[in-house]
# Entry
Amino acid sequence: MTLKDLVSEEELARLQQELHDRFGLNADIMDGDGHRLLGNTWGNDLCRAIRDDDKGFGAICATAGQMFTQLLKKGEPFVEYCDGGMVRVSVPVVVDGEVVGGVGGCGLVPADEEVDEFTIGMMSGLSEEDIAEKTKTVRTVTEEQLAEIQAFITERIDGLLK
# Structure
């Protein structure tokens, strides 16, 4: 059983766009193995630049994706940091004890922290100037807002699965 067996692709795409529009996430919908089911929604210019940079993608996005897959399999909502200092917030979709997918996104920086521009520079081929400029497009998020995002996802998924 997969998430697409339970919820139409159109509904999943609508949810993904809603997460992007409402919370500014690089929103995504994943299958139970952590593979992206739909295309990207970019919440900021920095993440897109990192992902488009081969070195940055390999050092930051790919490793964060591996951690995401491990956390997803635990079946509990989580917030995790990438090496760039931004967070991923996610809610696994569990049906009859089986993780069939995950809903969430990344690309926000906690309100009391900063994007780690130095590390991004060291781990990518992006220039300091480019990183600094694109960092301006990254939204901040509070702990309360992260909890709100998880609650929103949980409620929407529950509604879609009924």
In short: Residues 54-73 form the longest helix (20 residues). Strands lie at 26-31, 78-81, 87-95, 98-110, 140-141.
